[in-house]
Amino acid sequence: MRPWEQDPILAVDRLSMRFGGLVAVSDVSFRVGRGQVTAVIGPNGAGKTTVFNCITGFYKPSAGRLALSHGAAPSPSELDALTRTGRAAARTRKGGVFLLERLPDHKVASAARVGRTFQNIRLFSGMTVLENLLVAQHMGLTETGLLSPAALLNLPSWRRREAAAVERAKTWLERIHLIHRADDPAGDLPYGDQRRLEIARAMCAQPVLLCLDEPAAGLNPRESAALNELLLSIRDADATSVLLIEHDMSVVMGISDHVVVLEYGRKIADGTPEEVRTDPRVIAAYLGVEEDAVEAIEAEVGV
Amino acid sequence: MHEATAAASSGLLARALKDAAASAAITALLLVPLVGMHATEGPSGALVLKYRFGLVAIFALLVGGLRLGLHLTVWRGDSARGAAPRFPALARLAGPAGDAAKPVFFAVLLLYPLLAVLGSGGLGPSRYWIDLGIYILTYVMLGWGLNIVVGLAGLLDLGYVAFYAVGAYTFALLAGSVPISDFFAGTLGADFWRLWSFWVCLPLSGLLAALWGVILGFPVLRLRGDYLAIVTLAFGEIIRLVLINWVDLTNGGAGIASIPPISFFGIPFSSGEGGFANLFGLEFNPMHRNIFLYFVILALAALTAVATIRLRRMPVGRAWEALREDEIACRSLGINTTLTKLTAFSIGAMFGGFAGAFFAVRIRFVSPESFTFMESAVILAIVVLGGMGSQIGVAVSAILLIGGMEMLRNLTFLKDPWLFGPDFDPSLYRMLIFGFAMVAVMAWRPRGLVSSRLATIFLKERKKVSGDLVREGHG
Ligand SMILES: Nc1ncnc2c1ncn2[C@@H]1O[C@H](COP(=O)(O)OP(=O)(O)O)[C@@H](O)[C@H]1O
Ligand SMILES: [Mg+2]
C-alpha cells in the first residue's frame, strides 16, 4: 500500500464536474496523505483549479465523494455507511469525517477546516496586513456569537482572546518575514509578499488541510526557495497537510511527497515525484506529443 | 529657466482667459433666448415679453469666471489629478490628528444650543437654529446608520428610508394606541403612557426595524450589486405604499397626528404645576422642549457613532469590511457571509428605526409623504459624499448637504427684481443645486470627502489606508 493510502486525510472518489456540455473534471480519484505535501500538476485547463473548487466547496461537484477526516481515516465500510445516511458529517472513534461535497463553502473552511489560497491572490487589500490575519481568525473569535456582549463592551475576557489572536498573527508575520509591515495595507505589499501573506492568512484559521493554487506563480527563484521552506515547515511544524497546484517543477519535485497528474480533466498518473517524472504519459502531456512518439523522446532526453 | 516658466505661465494665463471668454460668450448666446426673454402676463392679461439681459450677463460671467478659476487651479497641466488630498484639513480630521479634534467637535455640539441662544439673543429667536441643529443631527445619525450597511459592509441599500418609516410608525402607532394607554392607566396612572411612551417605544422601534431588516435581508441578500440595489429600492417603495393603502392601521395618506410629545423622562414640558419649567424653577418657555429634543438626537447620534466604532473593532465589523473587500476570500476563511450581511443590514436598520421614532416624536405627525425615495437618496448621498466608511466624512457631508440646502432658503437677495423677481423661490431649486454640488464633489473627490480608511488595530502605528486600495463592495 502506498504511504498516502494508509491514512489519507482526504479521499477523492470518482469526482466529476461538468459545466453545461464541458466536462472539466472526469472521474478523478486520488488520496491526499495525512502530513504529506501532495501536488496536483497538469497543463493549463486540465481541471486542477476546478478540483480545488470542488474540495473547498466553491463548486458542487456533478458526481463524486470527497471525504475529509480529522484524527484518522475511517474504514471504507464506515465511510459508505455515512454516505448512505445522507448526512454531511459524522463523529468517529478517531475524530470526525466530513463529506465536503455536502457542505457549503464556509462550513468546509470552518467545520472541516480546509484552508485555501487562490490562483489570483485574494487579499483584503484595503485592510492592513494584521487585519487580514485577524479576519482569518474570525471563527475562533466569534464562538460566543457574532455580537458577543463581551466583545461589544470590550470586557477583559474579550481583550484576552483578542490579544491571543494578535499573538498568533504576530507569530505568522515573523515566520513569513513581514512583521515590519504589519500596519501597512495588504494591497501595498510586493507580489511575492502578498503570496506569502495569503498563505499565512489561510494558516491563521488553523486548517488541517491547506490547498494552495499555484503558490509559486510569479515568484523569483529566491522567493520560490523561501516558499519551499515555508511549505515544508507548515507540513512538519504545524501538522497541516498540504495540497498544492503547481507549474514550477522545482517546487513540485523539491517538496512534494506525492504527485497527481491531470490532463483534460482525467487523472493520467499518480505516484512519487520520481515515478511521475519518468512516466511516458506525463512527458507526453507536458511536451504535447502523441503517445507513440514518447519512446523516441524518452530516448532523446535520456530517461 | 525663469523665463521659460514665466513664458509657460503667461501662455497658460492667455489660454485660460481665451477659454473663459469663449465659454462666457457661448453661454450668453445660448441664454439670450432661454433666460433673457421672459414671457409674463401683462397688466391687461395679454402676454408680454420681459427682457432680463442683466441675468444673462451674470450667468455668462459666472461661467467664464468658474472656467477661469478651474483653469488656474484644478486643470493646471502640471498638477497630477487626485495625487494630493485637496482638503488637507479634512484628510487630517480622519487621521490621528482627528483623535484630538474629536473632543473639540463634541464640545461644540454640546454647547451648540447655548451658542444659538446667545447668538440669536434669547430662547425664542434661537428656535430656528435649534431646529436646524436637530434637523442636521437627524441626518447625521441616519448617515451613520446607513454607513454601516453601505460604507462598511459594502451593501448598496437604496431603501434605507423603509426602516426610518418602520421606526416612525412603530412609535406613532404604539404611542397613540388607546388600548395600551388604557391598560397603563389602570396600573401605572392615567398619564403614564402619554409621558413615557417615547422612552418605552424608542427601543421597540429600533428592534422592530432591525427585525424588518432581517425579514427583508433574508431573501434579498443573496442578490449582489445592482440587483440588491433595485430590490432594496423596491422594498422602500412597497413600505410606503403599504403605509398609504393599509388605511385601517395607518390612516393612509392622512397620516397619524395624535402622537404625544416627548417628556423629560416623565416630566412634561408644560406650563402648569409639575411641568418641567415649574419643577426646575424656570420661566416656562416652549423652547425647553426643543432644546431637550436637540440633546436627545445628539445622544442617539453619539450612540450610533460609538456603536459603530466598537463594532468595527469586533470580529463582526472586521468581517463586514472584509466582505466589502472580497466576499470569496471571506468564505474561504469560514465566514458565513449571509449571516454577516444580515447583521450589517439589521444593525443599520435598527439605527434607522431609532431615528424614525425620534422623527415621529419631534414632528408629532407621521405620514407616508415623509418616507419617499428622495429621503433614501439624500441619506445615501450623504454617505457617498462623506466617503464611504468614514464617520467624520459622513458628519461633515450631512452638515454641508442638509445645512447647505437649508441655507438656500435664506438667499433672499435672489428675489431682487433685477435678478429673478419676488416670485422666485430659491428653495425650489435646492435639488438642482444639490445635484450640481454632488457632481462637482464627485469630480473632485470621487472617493468622497474623507477617502482614506483607518485601520482598526495596529502593532506600532495606526496608519491610514489610501482610498485607492479600499474597495467599495459589490453586493
Ligand atoms: N465556472 C466555470 N464555468 C465554465 N467552465 C469552467 C469554469 N471553471 C472552469 N471551467 C473550465 O474547466 C476547464 C478546466 O479549468 P481549470 O480547472 O481552471 O484548469 P486549470 O486550473 O487546470 O488550468 C477549462 O476548460 C475551463 O474553461
Ligand atoms: Mg488553475
From TrEMBL, chain A:
CDD domains (UniProt xref): ABC_Mj1267_LivG_branched (cd03219)
Superkingdom of this protein's organism: Bacteria
Gene Ontology biological process terms, A to Z: D-alanine transmembrane transport; L-alanine transport; L-isoleucine import across plasma membrane; L-valine import across plasma membrane
Name assigned to this protein: Amino acid/amide ABC transporter ATP-binding protein 1 (HAAT family)
Family to which this protein belongs: Belongs to the ABC transporter superfamily.
InterPro entries referenced in this protein's UniProt entry, alphabetically: AAA+_ATPase, ABC_AA/LPS_Transport, ABC_transporter-like_ATP-bd, BCA_ABC_TP_C, P-loop_NTPase
A Pfam family: BCA_ABC_TP_C
GO molecular function, one term: L-valine transmembrane transporter activity
Organism: Aquabacter spiritensis
Keyword Isomerase: no
Segments forming domain ABC transporter: 10-289
Cellular compartments per GO CC: plasma membrane
Protein keywords: Amino-acid transport, ATP-binding, Nucleotide-binding, Transport
SUPFAM superfamilies on file: P-loop containing nucleoside triphosphate hydrolases
Automatic annotation (TrEMBL), chain B:
Name of this chain's protein: Branched-chain amino acid transport system permease protein
Domain named High-affinity branched-chain amino acid transport system permease LivHM N-terminal: residues: 15-111
Main subcellular location of this protein, as a coarse class: membrane
Coiled-coil regions listed: none
Top-level taxon of the source organism: Bacteria
Keywords: Cell membrane, Membrane, Transmembrane, Transmembrane helix
Recorded topology in the membrane: Multi-pass membrane protein
Species whose genome carries this gene: Aquabacter spiritensis
Sequence intervals crossing the membrane: 20-39, 51-70, 104-124, 136-156, 162-184, 196-221, 227-247, 291-311, 342-365, 377-402, 427-444
Pfam family, one: BPD_transp_2
